[in-house]
Amino acid sequence: MKVNPIEMQKSLGGVNYPASKKQIIEKAESNGAGPEVKEALKSLPEKEYDSPASVNKAVGR
User: Fold this and answer.
1) Is 2 helix (H, G, I), strand (E, B) or coil?
2) What is the DSSP letter of 34?
3) How far apart are CA 41 and CA 3, in angstroms?
4) What's the distance, Cα to Cα, between the start and end of the chain in Å?
């Protein structure tokens, strides 16, 4: 899934890592994430993510 990396980073602002998929999605929604970003985050594997880069890497698969 192709997501604008800048939009993804804006959506992940303020996430305290390590963070679960659920925490990441909740923070993205409170940051006003767009539908593409929300869809990409919902497709993430259930695990702890240790940085925004690890989230981007998982989304890029």
Assistant:
1) coil
2) -
3) 10
4) 8
C-alpha Rg value of the chain to the nearest Å: 10
Tell me the C-alpha distance between 33 and 25, whole Å: 9
Query: Please, which residues have CB within 8 angstroms of residue 13's CB and are 6 or more apart in sequence?
Result: 27, 31
In sequence order, what are the beta bridge partners of 19?
A: 49
As a whole number of angstroms, the distance between CA 16 and CA 39 comes to 21
Cβ atoms of 30 and 47 closer than 8 Å: no
Tens of pLDDT, residues 6-52? 999 999 999 999 999 999 999 999 999 999 999 999 999 999 999 99
Distance separating alpha carbons of residues 11 and 33, to the nearest angstrom: 5
> For the chain, what's the residue count?
61
